[in-house]
Structures are given as C-alpha cells and as structure tokens.
C-alpha cells in the first residue's frame, strides 16, 4: 500500500481529508494523519479558551474515521525528504509516498529577552489551557499585559474583559492605530469598544524586554501580573530545521503554485508554515489545501497538472469583541457590531458541521 502522510490536524489538512474522504483517493493508498492530539483543535477560538469564556470541548472536533485512514499521535522530531521518512518521539518512523506538511506555527519572540520565559501563549490548545489557568486564577485587580494587537490580541483582550471585569488589561500595539492595514472605520470601532470597556490600548509600543512581573516598553517599565504574547509567529521548529530545501526569510519552505516544494513534487506544504505573501489564517490554509488536493487528484488519475493555477483570493476577515459585538471585512465591505459577531458565530457553526466527517 502507498502512504499519503498528513502532518498536522489543523485547518489545511482537515480540508484535505474533507476532499479525499470517503472515496476520492486510490484503493491502493492509505492516509496517515499525524498530530500531537487526538482531535482537531479550532485554533481561531483559542483566545476564548484562554479567557475562560469557552470550554475545552467547544474548541475541538473529532478527527474522521475511515478504514484506510490511520491516525498517529505524537511529537514529530524530524522530516527527512531524502529518505521520505518522518520521525516521531519514542523512536517511531513513518515512511511516505506523498507528504503534506500542515504543522502550523509557533510564537516568534523576535529576540526580545525574557519573552519566551515570562509570557503565556495561545498558539496551541495545551498552552491556551495554561494561559486560562493563569489568567482566570489571578486575584482581583491584577494587571494583564497582552503584547500584540492583531486579531488574536484583540479577541483575547475583549474576551478577557467579559470574563474578568475586575482585571486591568493593557493591550500593546506597535502601530499608531489598531489593525493598521484594515479600513479606518474598523480601527475606530475597535478602539471605541476598548475605551468603553476600560481596556487600555498602548499605541506605538515597543516591548524590548520581559521580566517576571514587568514589561519594558521603550524606556518605561510597566508592572504586570501576567503577560500574553500575540506579537508574531514563525514556522514550527521541525519545519525550520528541514534540510536541503529553499526557505524564505521567515524560515518557511518556498512552494510552487501547487504548494509542492520547489525541488520535490511529492512534498506539499500548506498553512502557516508555507511561504506566502498573504497573512497566515485558517482561511488561507484551507485555500492552499484545495490547490494541493487538486494536484494530488491529478496525480492519482495520471492527468497533467494545470499550467496555471488561479491566484488565491481570500473572502475577508471576521473578528469578535466579546460574545455580543464584532467586526468583519467581507469583500472590502466593513461590518461592525452585533451583525458581525453573528457572522462569525454562524461561520463557526457551519465549519464544525462541515468537518464532522
């Protein structure tokens, strides 16, 4: 039997499974899904888990079952594309004929001293659980610093405000306005929500050092009781350490229009660890998976690949401000308030049912 190995059970590889199962791959092929957890984690909802407004069960979905789908759980330690083998902890090895790498990303601390040691994270479900225990265990009146005012930082700050009205929340933003690349209408709306709900936004910040109980912003030392890092990502270590492949300046493997490695048509890279000029998102991972699965299906049918794949165009962004308000940018149209929040909740409902294979 041939073996199609999918590394990571995130949004990209869940889309791969959605398109391949139950019978859209050859009968002489097994699919092996490798992940550290026995379920698909809804990473876009980890902020709510960390803030204590969603339960662990609400942010995960069971992996599908199929007679020719093997699920393997553990930590990936090395990917050897020359020998076509993936190494796991406990001295396990998985050989592949085709490989899809969808292992996502981890925090990028940009060389800031103390950031890795003294900040919490929402990059994995395990780290989000730890962040929940810390934040929701703080005494009344404690100060929480959230470093990074992208979508993750904004949603975490707003959800934590609803969860813990007694906390002092400081959101550190490097830009002069929140979501600088979004329409000013959305930025103003989000800033207004934070002002009304007593979340302090510190614009044009630059965290130069993190200590236990303190953040250094420029030359100012700001006491905090807990700090969460949401200020940038990088490919996971095992991808950064892959040898003999071309990578971009961020350590992400460079891929062709089918999301294959430039020098290896048997290896596909999708999601946050693939080189792209678009910002990382679940939506992007799913679109990249669509392109990769088309290439795989063509290969299975001995058909030529399309000479030119269309450019990926994302539909927009959805964000929440607590459970009742939100913001959205859909087809260049800005939407705010209750309608935007309902749009995000509706999409989450639809997604959970779509991947319930």
From TrEMBL:
Query: In this protein, which residues make up the domain named FAD/NAD(P)-binding?
Result: 3-289
Record's keyword terms, sorted: FAD, Flavoprotein, Oxidoreductase
One Gene Ontology MF term: NAD(P)H dehydrogenase (quinone) activity
What does the record give as cofactor? FAD
Share an example GO biological-process annotation for this protein.
Answer: aerobic electron transport chain
| InterPro entries noted in UniProt | FAD/NAD-bd_sf (IPR036188), FAD/NAD-binding_dom (IPR023753), NADH-Q_oxidoreductase (IPR051169)
Q: Which domain of life is it from?
A: Bacteria
Family as reported in the entry's similarity comment: Belongs to the NADH dehydrogenase family.
Protein name (record): NADH dehydrogenase
What is this organism's lineage? Bacteria, Bacillati, Bacillota, Bacilli, Bacillales
